[in-house]
From TrEMBL:
Function description: Required for male fertility and root tip growth. Catalyzes the transfer of a geranylgeranyl moiety from geranylgeranyl diphosphate to both cysteines of proteins with the C-terminal sequence -XXCC, -XCXC and -CCXX.
Coiled-coil residues: none
Residue intervals passing through the bilayer: none
The UniProt record lists the keyword Protein transport: no
EC primary class: transferase
Keyword Transferase: yes
Entry protein name: Geranylgeranyl transferase type-2 subunit beta
Higher taxonomy: Eukaryota, Viridiplantae, Streptophyta, Embryophyta, Tracheophyta
Biological process, per Gene Ontology: gametophyte development; root development
Length: 313
């Protein structure tokens, strides 16, 4: 079996950041904030965050903040809860949360909670359990969980639970591994994991492993490296990770590397991108692959960063 070519992945991530005119950068322009989170978190897990200029990143992030308190995907873009979490996560990576007006960001998140406990993604109102996770994760990092209605938020998430043990994006929505990560992560952060039938959900999740060792996001779908994050983190949070073959999954992820130019793709022989490079490296970290920092399955941040947030006061 091959090895993780970490040095090449570091070089790949840094090169994408520099090549602002490349195809990938143009496509990513509107979600640059998410891209920054993926790339920088991957670098941190590989122990190479010090190759980036902290002040440059922090000042760019702050220039993406809107007067409402939310952050946009890039300078001058409209704020959205998706980018707001990424901005807060990246500031946490650099231990720079003190530059942000915590109450201003919190007020933006609080303004997006609906009467039924759900969260909208922005002023346009789309509701999704992704936004419940993001809101809860974000205010928790900011030590402001008490500012949202946690009881209602949890109740809404539970209303999105299906008979198969999984969760969808809204009540009645089909179970999907991405939404399951969001719901399990939100329940983990709020201390509500006892509301999950762990054996039932664990069964659905471990059935996501296919012959090649990779994981898919729903029955009958193709495996994809990003589910090494969505599925695996969920299995860890409910204590059922021993229900899949770790060795086979490690092999699948390593097979998705571009061992010459660096980067990781969704499945073997596809083109690499920063998103799957992050999820591949994060998945390997969850699998305790040697040489990588451990990552927290609920906050999606390195464990030392989470410890810094909660235990440094
Ligand atoms: C901090 C890690 C982190 C996340 C923030 C944005 C977010 C919260 C969570 C997204 C969860 C989600 C819905 C992930 C799924 C992404 C994905 C690969 C969607 C593709 O779905 P389909 O149905 O693909 O197009 P399949 O694999 O089913 O063919
Ligand atoms: Zn994917």
């Amino acid at each position: 079996m091959g090895e993780l070519v970490a040095d090449k992945h570091v070089r790949y991530i840094l090169s994408v950041e520099k090549k602002k005119d490349s195809f990938e950068s143009v496509v990513m322009e509107h979600l640059r904030m998410n891209g920054a989170y993926w790339g920088l978190t991957a670098l941190d897990i590989m122990g190479k965050l010090d190759t980036v200029d902290t002040n440059e990143v922090v000042s760019w992030i702050m220039s993406c903040q809107h007067e409402s308190g939310g952050f946009g995907g890039n300078v001058g873009h409209d704020p959205h809860i998706l980018y707001t979490l990424s901005a807060v996560q990246v500031l946490a990576l650099f231990n720079k949360l003190d530059v942000v007006d915590v109450d201003k960001v919190t007020n933006y998140i609080v303004s997006l909670q609906n009467e039924d406990g759900s969260f909208s993604g922005d002023i346009w109102g789309e509701v999704d359990t992704r936004f419940s996770y993001i809101a809860i994760c974000c205010v928790s990092i900011l030590h402001r969980l008490d500012r949202i209605n946690v009881e209602k938020a949890v109740k809404y998430i539970i209303s999105c639970k299906n008979m198969d043990g999984g969760f969808g994006c809204t009540p009645g929505g089909e179970s999907h591994a991405g939404q399951i990560f969001c719901c399990v992560g939100a329940l983990a952060i709020t201390g509500s994991l006892d509301l999950i039938d762990k054996d039932l959900l664990g069964w659905w999740l471990c059935e996501r492993q296919v012959k090649s060792g990779g994981l898919n996001g729903r029955p009958e779908k193709l495996p994809d490296v990003c589910y090494s994050w969505w599925v695996l983190s969920s299995l860890i949070m409910i204590d059922r990770v021993h229900w899949i073959s770790k060795e086979k999954l490690i092999k699948f992820i390593l097979d998705c590397q571009d061992t010459e130019k660096g980067g990781i793709s969704d499945r073997p022989d596809d083109a690499v991108d920063v998103f799957h490079t992050y999820f591949g490296v994060a998945g390997l970290s969850l699998l305790e692959y040697p040489g990588l920092k451990p990552i927290d399955p609920a906050y999606a941040l390195p464990v030392d960063v989470v410890d810094q947030i909660f235990f440094s006061k």
